[in-house]
Each structure stands twice: as structure tokens, then as C-alpha cells.
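Example with several molecule types.
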Amino acid sequence: MVKSATTKDAQALIHSLRSAYAATPINLKIIDLYIVFAVVTALIQIAYVAVVGSFPFNSFLSGVLSCVGTAVLAVSLRIQVNKENKEFKDLPPERAFADFVLCNLVLHLVIMNFLG
Amino acid sequence: MDRNLGILVAALLLVASTTCAIFNPVSESHRSAASELFSSADGSFGSLEETYEALKTFEVLGIEKKPEIRTSACVSVVKILSSTSSALKDLFHALRVNGVLKCELNDQDFPGIGSKLKDSLNGANSLLDFYYSIGGLMLIKDQTSEVDVHISDADRIFRSIKALSQSDGRWRLNSNNPESSNDAAGIALESLAGVISLASSEIDSSLIATLKNDISKLFDGVEKYDDGTCFFDEKLVDARGHEGPLSASASVVRGITAFAAVSSENLNLPGEKVLGLAKFFLGIGIPGSAKDLYYQIDALSCLESIRGSVPLILSLPATVLSVTKKDQLKVRVSTVLGSSAPPLSVKLMQIFVSGSKDASVIDQKLKFDPENSVHVLETLPTNVDVGNYIFSFEIIFDEPEHKNKYATGGRTRVPIHVTGVIKIDSGEIAILENDLGSVETQKKLDLPGESAVALSANHLQKLRLSFRLTTPFGQVFKPHQAFLKLKHESGVEHIFVVANSGKKFEIILDFLGLVDKFFYLSGTYDLQLTVGDSVMENSFLQPLGHIELDLPEAPEKAARPPPQPVDMYSRYGPKAEISHIFRVPEKRPPRELSLAFFGLVILPFFGFLAGLFHLRANLKNFPKSIHATFAILFHLGIAAVLSLYALFWFKLDLFTTLKTLGLLGIFLMFVGHKTLSHLASTSAKLKTT
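Resulting C-alpha cells for the full complex:
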């Protein structure tokens, strides 16, 4: 009985989350998708290292940090672009996007140097 | 400098032993050295001065000169003597060479040269100017009779040269230079002798007397060594750039000889000093350079014919005599160049024993052998046994007036080495019992000869070796070396000195005390006896046989025998191969696995694209018309930067990348700003409307 109540609650929770999420604007969803893509790539790299060992450690770090870094930058872009966020009301989203591009380029320069 | 040091060391060694030495006259080795040192590439010797030195040396030693030398030298001689602008020094050297070679010269040349030399003589104020002009005039006098070379104001010239002399008998080169040298003294004496011979009227005899005074003062400054050699030393480099006792002594000898030749009466030169000079030049042996050989030979040729004290050299063809072979002592007396001496006899006056104060007076005359021109002592005095001696000889002239013409230097001391066959007998080797000294084994030894004994002993026994040594005259003989060597089969050696009491030599090896020294090594030891000395003609090193030694076991603390040297060739042979340990490379995963994961990593990208499609993402907001270019350029710029990064990873270096990135960045900023500002203004318009 308790179990079914918990599962029912969980299902209800997930359903409400999904419906709430459907309401988000599409550009935010694109950003979310991008974040998921970056994180999954990072996880695959970690799985690879777990299998074969971390011999060129710098390469592993470089790959993982590139994924994580770009995910973090995307998160910050999302925060700045989100219209419901009152803090960044005056910041035009194009400006946030320009920052995102610039920071990504710098990040990837460093990553490529560290890749070895 | 080196020669000086060498002479000093040799002299010190001689002083330590005895003050005597052997000097040999000029011999074949000088001739062959002259041919070698004065070799020229194409017949010429460089300068005329060197040519003259070579020619003079060949002439004195009697060596045939090659015709190419004459042709090339005569060419330069003729060139210099015919030209009117030749320097004084060149004229002098050319005339000297001409005197030896007698080249074909134009007869008109001599008067011109003669007047030129006279002019420079009148205007001369330095010693070398006087020397070259007077020397040149003397040479012209010998070469042609057409030119009048006499000097009218000889007195004035004599005084001007004399003005440069110092009180110690040396001369200065010119009045400006305060330093005096022996070399300059020799030059001055030669010039003054030339003045005297060229003078048209007699020179004041008081001037010549002062000159004789100067010469005796010069001789007072001569340096001496204990073996009787004398020389004139030079402390500074002279005008002609030569330094050292050889050139200074040669110059003085030339000067004195020239002066003695023109002086009317006997100069009374100190005989031992002239003989000392001769010994100095002969004592050099064979010089190493052409210039030194010239100085030596030139000086010796002057000494050969110096008026009043021609040195006579007493030399011995052999200084090692054998008593056993009954060698005869032979003595030669000759001049410095090896020519024969006047009739004289040699007497052996005294014999000294080296290293002790024993001396015996002999006073025995040597017999003269006219065929070989040697004086022979047919039998050695009876008390001369093997050993080192010094024989003292004296020369006595058959005609007493020869004493005024030749210098012999009184007594001559010569070291003689007398050798002989030493008799060895009563050789025996025995093994003795330790306590009682009773003999266990005894064998006779045939020394020196073949013998191979085979003995055996243990550590409680002793080995005794004995023999007797006697000289040919039956005296006691103590050799320099008397060793017994025991060599183990592993190579370890032990050497013992055999001591003597009187004629008997005996050594007793007590193995009990030697066990430690032998490193407790038992086994076969080879025995070897060495007896030797420089006066012993039959010195020997003889293997005697072997001995089996039985020694106790080595205790723990005993010394190990020294490691024997390994075979000579293996020490320098190839060494063992070194196997290097390299860092083991990391294990890399198999290629297929890596490729599989590579594919796996690419998948999320496609997942991203699929998700975008699912979200119905579109490009509706893409700028139109004019602003489209900026937008496209913006995207292209980003693509360019990313491909630059890829290129950077593949092959570029950071500096090029950064440079290109800077340029691309500026471009990207520009287009990006344009695009995004347009987008921002568009959306702002949308918001307001």
C-alpha cells in the first residue's frame, strides 16, 4: 500500500515536472539539450579512462574539462537569457551569447594546447 | 738557456763523482750533422749570411758542396755587388760569400765597392758599421789587388773603436747604448785587428798595449766549470739577436784569433783558458741547429790556428777496459779539428780510485804507435783490479819550444772503467732443519750455468743458499745486485737480497718467520738467482729450479696476496656488454577499443542534432539581405577559429596560432558585433511594437 502510494507520488511528481518543463521557451530547451550532450560526452570519456587507464592523463583532463567547461558556460548563458530571471533583466541576450562564444573560444584554445 | 742548464747539471754530476771528463775532437758525426743541418731545398740557404755560414762549415769540415749552391749563391752575390744602392751589411756578407766561392764578377765593381766602404768607414759611429766596413775592405784586399784598401787615418779609427770599450774588457755597440757585451768585444777585436793590418802607417804601440790589457781583462771575466771548460756568457740579447754563451764565446774567439794573427809579438794568452774554451766547444757534442753548428765549427777552426796557444786535446777511443781480455789503454793527442799534434809523449802519472782517496803514483811513459798515431799503455799496472778509476795523464813535448805554441793544460784526468770476469764457485743450496741446523738435503750449484734442483720443504725448515765471488786478481768482490727471487705458481713474487761476509755470499730463508710474508700460499715456488754489476762481465740471472713449500692454512685475518696483473691484452680488450634498463613504456589499449570509444564519443553529437530536430528548432530569426552576410561571416569566423584549433593540434605551434587567432579574433569581433547588435535592435523593436 505504502509502496504504491510512493510510486504514485513519484509518477505524479515526474508528470508535473514534465508538464512544467514543456512550458519553458524553446531557446532554453536548446541550451539544456546542449548541456546534456556535453555531460554525456564527458561521461563516456570517464568510462573510457576507467577501462584503459589514465596514461596520457593530460589528454583525459583536457577532454573532460572541455566538456565540463562548455557545459558550465552554457549554464551561465541559460541563466542570463532566461526572461524569468530578474537579475539579468537589462542584459540583452545577444550580449550573453557573445560572451558565451568568446569564453568558449578561449576555453577551447587552452584545451587544445593541453591536449598534447 | 737549456744548454746552460744542461751543462750545469752535467757539471754538478761530475763534481759529485769526480772532476774529470772526456773531450773528443771533431769527428765524422760532425760532418754528417753538417750535411743534414745545412740542407737546402734548391741550393740556396735563405740569406747570404746563412749561405756563408754553410759554406764556411763545409770548408772547415772538408765536405764537398753541391754545384747548385754555387750557382744560386753567385746570382745573389753578383746582384748585390753590382748594385750601387746595396746596404753596408749586405755588401759585407756578399763579399764573404764571394771569398769562398770566387764568383765571376765584373772588375769595375770592386773599386766602386771599395770607395763606398771607405766612405762608410769615415762616417761610421757604431761598432757594427766599423765592423762591416773594415771587414769588407779586408775581404776586397784578399779578392783583388786592384783596389787600394789602405786606411790613412788608422789612428783615429782605432781610437774611435777603442772609445766604446768598458773597463772590464767588454765593449758597447754604440755610444748611445750603455750595455756592454762579450759579443761586442769580439766584434771590436776583429775590427781593430783589421785596422792594424790595413793601416798604411804604423799605429802607435801604446794603443796596441792597451788593447792587450783589454784582452787580459776580458779573460778575467771568463766563466768556468769544474771539468775545465771556460766560456764567455751573455746576459742580454745582443744587436744581432743571438743570445747565449755559444755565440758570445765564438765571437770572442774570432776576435782574439784575428788580433793574435796581426800582433807583432806573442799575446801571452792564458793557456788553460784557451784550452778551456776549446773544451767548451768540443763538449757541446753535435749541436742541434745550423747556427750553433756554425759557431762551434768556426770557433774551433780559429782555435786550430791561433798564434801562441793552439789547444791540444787528449782523448781516448775506449774508456772501458777488460782485465780478462787484457785490453790495452790507448790515448790520442790531436788538435781540436782532429789533425795530428807535433811530436810529443804521454805519461801516465797517477791512478785514483773513484769514490775513495786512494791514489798511486805511476809515472809511466806510453809507447807511441805511429801507424795509428795513438799512445799505448801495453800492460795495466799490477794493482788495477776491476772497478772505476781516474787516470791522470801529462803531455811532454819532444821539442821544448813547442810549449810556447801549444796549450796542453798540465794534467788531464780521465775516468776509466775496468771490467773483468768474476769467478763464482762453491755454489750450494740446502734445506736445513729448523732447530738443530742439521742438513736434510744439500745440492751443489753450477753458477752460472744450467742447474735445475727440485727441493721440498715445510714451514719448520730453512733454505740456505751460498756461493763465493772472486775478482780476476783474487780480491773480494761485492756486486751491485745479488738477489734471490721466489715466484709462486700463481704469480706472487718475493725478492731477497743476498748478503756477504768477505768473499762468501749466503742467505738463509727461515720459513717459519716468512709464512706471513708468503701469504700462507703453499705450492711450487720457482727459484731465481741474480748477480750483477757494471764491472762484472759475466753478470747473470739464472733460474735455479723449484721448491715445493708446504705452509700451514691461512688464518682468517691474514693478508690476501696482492692481485696479479691480468693479461696485458685482456686489460685493453673489449669489456662486458652493458644491458641498459629503459623505462618500460606504458601499456596502451588495443587499437580497436580506442576506435570503438571514439565512435561512442561522436554519438552524443548526433543525439544533440536529433534532439534539435525533435524540438523543431529553426532558423527563422536568421537575418535577411544585407545583414545576412555579416551573420554568415560570423558563423564562418567561428568555424575558422575552430579549424585553426584543429590545425594547432595537428601541426602548428602556439605562437603562429596565437598570431592567427589574434587576426581572426579581430575579424570575428567586428562581424559578431555587427550581427548581434542588429539582432538586438530587431528584437528591441519587436518588444516596443
